[in-house]
Write a structure and sequence with these properties.
The protein has two domains: about 80 residues, Arc Repressor Mutant, subunit A; about 140 residues, Four Helix Bundle (Hemerythrin (Met), subunit A) (Up-down Bundle). About 70% of the residues lie in helices and about 5% in strands. It has ten helices and two strands, in the order H-H-H-H-E-E-H-H-H-H-H-H. It has a two-stranded antiparallel ribbon. The termini are far apart.
Length: about 230
C-alpha cells in the first residue's frame, strides 16, 4: 500500500497551496485531534502559517463546510463543527457501506497485516494505561488501514473526511472515557480473522461493531441533550 500513499503525497504536492490542499491539511489536523469542536479558524493566522492568500483559505473553508467539518457563523467567523445525531447517523451510513466491503474484498498483504497487528498492539497498550487519546488515535489508524486494503485512492480520501468527522464525534464522548475500551478487543478480533484468512467473519464482526458504536454514540448524545420543554403562552 506504499504506492497508494506515494500517489496521494504526489497529488498533494502538485496541488500545494490550492484550496484543495489547504482543505486536506485542515482535515488531517482535525482527524489527528489537533483542532477540536468549537475552535475558531482564524483567517489571518492560518493564511500566514500556511503561506496562502485569504481567498485560497476561504475556498478551503467552503470545501470543509460542504463536508460538515466546519461551520460558518455570520459576523463571527468559521468554527470547527460539533456533529449532532444526524451527522453521526450519516457517518455510520458511509462506514457500514465501505468498511465491511473493504475487509471482505480487500487483498491484505503480509505488510498490511503486520501494520494492523502493530496498531492493535498500540491500542492494547493504551487501554492498559488508560490513555483515551492514544486509544482513539489507534482506532482511527486501524480504520484507515482497513480502507487501504481496497487500493483505492478515492476511498482513502473519502475515509479521511469520515475520520475527521469521527474525531469530532469522539470529543462528545469525553465524559464517557470507557467508550474506546469496548472496541479494542473487537479490533483485535477483526485483525485476527483477517490474518487467519477468514474475511467474511471479519466483515461480520466489523458490521456489528459499527452498529453498536453508532447506537452508543447516539444514546450518549441523546442523554447529553437537555429536554425541550414546550413554551407557555
Amino acid at each position: 500500500m506504499n504506492a497508494l500513499l506515494d500517489d496521494l503525497h504526489a497529488d498533494e504536492s502538485r496541488h500545494a497551496h490550492t484550496g484543495a490542499w489547504i482543505a486536506a491539511v485542515l482535515r488531517r489536523r482535525i482527524a489527528q485531534g489537533r483542532l477540536t469542536p468549537g475552535s475558531k479558524l482564524s483567517e489571518q493566522s492560518l493564511s500566514e502559517s500556511l503561506g496562502v492568500s485569504r481567498n485560497t483559505l476561504r475556498e478551503a473553508f467552503s470545501t470543509l463546510a460542504g463536508e460538515s467539518v466546519v461551520v460558518r457563523i455570520p459576523n463571527r467567523g468559521v468554527f470547527v463543527a460539533s456533529p449532532g445525531a444526524e451527522e453521526v447517523r450519516e457517518i455510520y451510513r458511509v462506514r457500514r457501506m465501505i468498511e465491511p466491503a473493504a475487509v471482505l474484498w480487500g487483498t491484505p498483504t503480509e505488510q498490511d497485516l503486520d501494520e494492523m497487528d502493530t496498531i492493535v498492539a498500540r491500542a492494547q497498550q493504551a487501554r492498559a494505561v488508560g490513555s483515551v487519546p492514544d486509544m482513539a488515535d489507534a482506532n482511527q489508524a486501524l480504520h484507515q488501514a482497513v480502507i487501504r486494503l481496497t487500493g483505492s485512492s478515492s476511498l482513502h480520501v473519502l475515509m479521511e473526511r469520515v475520520l475527521a468527522q469521527m474525531r469530532l464525534v469522539f470529543h462528545a464522548m469525553s465524559s464517557a472515557p470507557d467508550f474506546h475500551t469496548h472496541y479494542v478487543q473487537r479490533n483485535v478480533d477483526i485483525v485476527s480473522r483477517l490474518r487467519a484468512g477468514r474475511p467474511a467473519e471479519a466483515a461480520e464482526v466489523l458490521r456489528g461493531y459499527l452498529d453498536d458504536a453508532e447506537a452508543e454514540l447516539l444514546g450518549h448524545l441523546e442523554a447529553a441533550t437537555p429536554p425541550q420543554h414546550p413554551t407557555k403562552n
